[in-house]
TrEMBL record:
GO molecular function annotations of the record: phosphoribosylanthranilate isomerase activity
Enzyme class name: isomerase
Keyword annotations: Amino-acid biosynthesis, Aromatic amino acid biosynthesis, Isomerase, Tryptophan biosynthesis
Listed EC numbers: 5.3.1.24
Catalytic reaction(s) noted: N-(5-phospho-beta-D-ribosyl)anthranilate = 1-(2-carboxyphenylamino)-1-deoxy-D-ribulose 5-phosphate
InterPro entries assigned to the protein according to its UniProt record, in alphabetical order: Aldolase_TIM (IPR013785), PRAI_dom (IPR001240), RibuloseP-bd_barrel (IPR011060), TrpF_fam (IPR044643)
Taxonomic superkingdom: Bacteria
Protein name, UniProt field: N-(5'-phosphoribosyl)anthranilate isomerase
Alphabetized HAMAP family for the sequence: PRAI (MF_00135)
Amino acid sequence: MSEVCVKICGLGTEATLDAALEAGADLVGFVHFPRSPRHVTLEQGRDLARRARGRAERVVLLVDPDDALLAAAIDALDPDLIQLHGKESPQRLAEIRARTGRPVMKAVGIATAGDLAVLPDYASVADRLLLDAKPPPGADLPGGNGRSFDWDILRDAVLPAGTMLSGGLDAGNVGLALARTGLSAVDVSSGVELRPGEKDPVRIAAFVAAARRRA
Ligand SMILES: O=C(O)c1ccccc1NCC(=O)[C@H](O)[C@H](O)COP(=O)(O)O
């Protein structure tokens, strides 16, 4: 069985980025969304992404970006992957992919089996899908809420290769999540933090080790 692919999202400091890289994360994510406790400015993102170049895939996370923001984020971070975590339609995804020439990963919120219906449309234009828990009503953030969805919803789903599972994962539950869903790629934010926005190198290392233990 090949190694589980791990993304650590919402990194904001050199120390925690280094912890993710040293733990062997495959992808490192930088959130550019001012309402988030994990928000990094484009200047901060530029420095962090430079530091990670060649060591992991650098992901810039944007929420419903307009063309100007996309251009600025790409200029600053030179990302390997653009993660779209808003209400972007499949058409907008295709446009962003064509306009930027960069691979895109679409985050889709899941709460019930009905939420899987949109996946084929997104799969036809995205380079990767990320399945996240749908935020609770009234939530301030579209992701990074530390909530899981019922993994059994995915039991009979046919998902594209590389689909990432996220939402409420941590070192204690990631092994079970992988086993229950059959997926081989995971993404985490809150589960490797001490408090919102404060990543913990110890939890990052524990998460990567726990995810890979399955392999
Ligand atoms: O993390 C954020 O603050 C955030 C803000 C706005 C949109 C998305 C955001 N995070 C998305 C992620 O990639 C998270 O890793 C994913 O939602 C899982 O989060 P968690 O349940 O906290 O592990």
